[in-house]
Amino acid sequence: MKTTFISTFMLADSSRRNILSQSTLVNKLGVELSSGRKFDIGLDLGARTGESVSVRSEFNFLNGIKDTNALAESRLAVSQAAMDDMLTDAQAFMATLVALKEDPTTADIVKADAEGNMGLLVSRLNSQQNGYFIFGGINSANTPFADYSDPASPNKVAADAAFLAEFGFDQSNPGVPGITGTAMTTYLSGNFDAMFQTPNWEATWSTASDTPLSSRISASETVATSASANEPAFRELAKAYTMMSDLGNEALSDEAYKVVVDTAIQTLGSAMNNLTSVMGKMGTVQEQVKLAGERLDVQTNILNTRINDLELVDKEETSVRLTTALTQLETTYAVTSRMQGLSLLNFI
User: Fold this and answer.
1) Beta bridge pairs of residue 216
2) Could you give the angle at the alpha carbon of 114 between the alpha carbons of 227 and 166, nearest 5°?
3) Rg of the chain's alpha carbons, rounded to an integer?
4) What angle do CA 278, 279, 281 make, to 5 degrees?
5) At 141, is the secondary structure helix, strand, or coil?
6) Please, which residues bridge with residue 133 across strands?
7) DSSP code of residue 212
8) What is residue 51's predicted lDDT score, i.e. its pLDDT?
9) Where are the strands (E) in the chain, listed by range?
């Protein structure tokens, strides 16, 4: 025969443990009801905890890619807008050159137009997004394109030095009218052209990297999401605008001026073709990013559904359980209160 030790302390301690257990349950159910999620995922799921961790990790990874894609889409949109402006200005300038090429007396008008276009080219190639230069390639922290309008800018200094070295005087010298068409052709295809080729371009015009920024747009796809200021299209635009704004064209002979204009028209035509090609590539990437985003939406929705199946609670069921637990806790308090009034001394 087994007997159980009975004392006032034992009864009080038993009640205390019951109240603590019921209070813990009420707290747990209250948290689950307010959050909608299981109070302790590991305890509730047991062996399926690994699946929950794995699915949630994949969900967070894909959501991170979606955030990156949003930045990439914005960068591509800004790039396209900037290049569209460049193309529009180049087309308008081409029309001006074709219309006025036979009239050297309009050289000052063409010069002003070219200077304005050069300013826009500098501004657009130095476009920023979130503090980063979108045409800088992976060197996006530094201003990629030198401002030709600044007399101390390395590209302006190089252009002046090249002209001086070729002809023995600067662009404003009285000797400019004596430059022949043959001499101008030699200069434009020689030292002048060399300024826009590697390594001179990188030394005086651009600090951009040839390597464009790239973005992971899905778990298995990485694409280039920017264009570099070193693209041939931008070199040719700078070349054409420099040609028409800073070779002393207003004073050139008719023969030399015609050489400059014809070369500029040819250069602009190539620039516009190359610029259209870059814009086409960017457009293709934009479509890739869009399609990748749609696939990511489907994937994350599936993963989110599975996470909810594993981690969420049935609020109606939890509400019933919480009501029951509160009732039991109140009952325990009532019983404990009555038991506190009991004493063996009452029976001695």
Assistant:
1) 222
2) 95
3) 38
4) 65
5) coil
6) 128
7) P
8) 77
9) 128-129, 132-133, 214-216, 222-224
- Is there a contact between 37 and 326 (Cβ–Cβ < 8 Å)? no
Closest listed residue to residue 61, CA positions, set 288, 215, 218: 218
What is the Cα–Cα distance from 279 to 275, expressed in whole angstroms? 6
The pairing of strands 222-224 and 132-133 is unpaired
How many H helices and E strands in the chain? Answer: 11, 4
Could you read off the pLDDT of 22-34 as tens digits, one per residue? 666 666 666 666 6
Q: Which of 82, 87, 88, 94 is nearest to 267 (CA)?
A: 94
Average pLDDT in the 143-164 region? Answer: 96
Q: Which residue has the tokens 């009218």?
A: 177
What is the C-alpha separation between 255 and 248, in angstroms, rounded?
14
- pLDDT tens sequence across 139-150: 999 999 999 999
- pLDDT exceeds 90 at position 54: no
Q: How confident is the prediction for the chain on average, in pLDDT?
A: 86
pLDDT digits (tens, 9 = 90+) for 81-102: 999 999 999 999 999 999 988 8
Give kind and range of the element (H or E) at residue 348: none
Q: What's the pTM value of the predicted model, to 2 decimals?
A: 0.79
Q: What is the distance between the alpha carbons of residues 199 and 206, in angstroms, rounded to a whole number?
A: 10
Distance CA 288, CA 221 (A): 9
Place of tokens 């800073």: 246
Q: How far apart are CA 196 and CA 212, in angstroms?
A: 20
What pLDDT, in 10s, does the model give residues 105-141? 899 999 999 999 999 999 999 999 988 999 999 999 9
CA distance 261 to 238: 15
Give the CA distances from residue 57 to residues 45, 83, 303, in Å, rounded to whole numbers and listed in that order: 17, 39, 10
Calpha distance 96→90 (Å, rounded): 10
**Nearest CA among 118, 184, 183, 163 for reference residue 145:** 118
